[in-house]
Write a structure and sequence with these properties.
disordered N terminus; 7-stranded mixed β-sheet; alpha/beta; signal; 155 residues; Double Stranded RNA Binding Domain
């Protein structure tokens, strides 16, 4: 992160929901394109402190990220298809989870969905969630997190 940013500006950047378009795209895919698209969920990624959980828990989280991000897209776009394998016409989706340095009440968890169309257009939605949300939703936290991100996609 740019070291010249003030602490308040850094916090604003870290806590604001984000919807961005990639530099490769002149315009975002339309809501209609997204609503009827075929999606393929790529291998999920955990960024940040992966040592907060053991290897078995990490595998469980990665499986939930794949399953729940696809489910969130399908709930957002009921006419969409979730494919098992990449194809030349499928939108590639990479679910990302950003783990905090430590599980303390003031830290935030982050999540991102990175979409790339076959034409190279990129769309990213991201948000942060407090530890209290993790405690409230427990086993359904990843599902909740990706449902929240999916609501930020064009309708």
């Amino acid at each position: 992160m740019n070291r010249t940013l003030t602490r308040a500006a850094q916090l604003t950047l870290l806590t604001a929901p984000l919807l961005t378009l990639g530099a490769a795209s002149a315009q975002a895919p339309s809501a209609q394109q997204l609503a009827t698209a075929t999606y393929v969920i790529l291998d999920p990624v955990i960024e940040g402190n992966q040592n907060l959980v053991n290897a078995e828990q990490r595998q469980s989280i990665l499986a939930a990220m794949r399953r729940d991000s696809g489910g969130a897209l399908k709930r957002r776009y009921p006419q969409a298809t979730i494919a098992a394998a990449p194809s030349a016409t499928a939108i590639q989706v990479r679910p990302v989870f950003i783990a905090p340095n430590a599980l303390v009440p003031w830290n935030k968890l982050g999540a991102r969905l990175e979409l790339q169309t076959p034409q190279g257009q990129k769309l990213t939605v991201s948000d942060t969630f407090g530890i209290s949300v993790l405690l409230r939703y427990r086993a359904e936290f990843v599902n909740y997190m990706y449902d929240q991100l999916a609501t930020r996609l064009p309708r």
